[in-house]
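Most newcomers find our protein records easier to grasp once they have seen one. Each record describes a single protein and holds just a pair of labelled lines. A learned vocabulary of local backbone shapes supplies the integers on the structure line. Nothing more is needed to start thinking about how sequence determines fold. The record below serves as our worked example for the rest of this section.
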Amino acid sequence: MAGSQAFVKEYGDISFDEFPFCDGDNLALCSMFYMPFENVVSDSFDESIRLDEAFEKLFEFRGGEHKAIGLLINPELSKNTQYMTSRPRYSCLKMTGVRSVYEHDPAVQFAACTLIMPDGDNIIIFRGTDDSITGWKEDLDIYTKKSIPSHTLAVDYINEAAEKLDGKFIILGHSKGGNVALYGALKCSEEARSRIKELYNNDGPGFFDHSMFRSDAYSELLPRYHHIIPDSSFVGMLLAHDDDYKAVKSNKLIGVMQHDMGTWQLKDGNIVERSISRAGRITDITVSNIISHINDNQRQSIDTVVSAVVTGLGQETLLDFSKNAVKAIYGAVKAVKGVDKETRNEFKSSFKGTIKFIFDASREVTRERIPLAVGRVKTLVKSFAPANA
């Protein structure tokens, strides 16, 4: 078993004709697009550039050095991407339509690109949350609003790609990118949806409610939909989500650390599946209970307080925050104190009972697992029983 970087080393010299697109490609390409290709590649679908050439332009743009692109993003990503884009399997892909939208009010951090494959099919990748504070604010908006700006942008992007390009589409996204990939695929035009060959949602959070999963569009996409979460998923268990997921083995124990796709294990190009862990189920039930008990006033208070925190921090990125932590925290605290008392109290009430929800979820998971444990004991006992018993 190995991760996506090892997959690239093993299969990087093998064409897609010889070894078709698989889970390993999904993970490797999603990771790659955290690199800011929008700095060097056109946003038009009328222009394209080979992927290896695109990276060399980006490397030069960034000063010819392998620099980190964020506080929480793999510091080796630039080196890994250079190696990946130099391999024959990926170097011949053509990059086109690289879009990036970044705005403060409302918070928007959106990025997408398309890769044209040698056979004429296309790979659309939606980027997850980058290092920007605004990106994290839009993440939180997923939990307090029915839709975020990136949802609409994803729909528009898929529709335009379908109008401009021939062939079918493989759509990928990690974290928020997985959320907007699914939203875009469900809400795009029927013609565009009919051309979606595969859809990968990698540990993306859910939606405001379950209505998306009761739609005809979801039923239509389900045979082509791959929802992958790590076995102790935290992010992918948030909000209303589908139960049509596959849990992948991670080499990390803690749910938040498992969110990194580089920790997900592959064998022969496919994810190594395992059952969702006890921690993952507890997270799922706990967050579901918390969200179901939050009313509209509390959601508004969360949005108001978080917006104050973001403004008070006065930083553009998490890397900036790490360098100016004391000043940033002081600014955030001051900003929150400036929010009216009623809103602050409403905000605090949003999380009232959280400890009880955790204990309730733990007891529920324990009850779920008792029959499984009994079944395992019975199987073990039978294995030691005499053959003629």
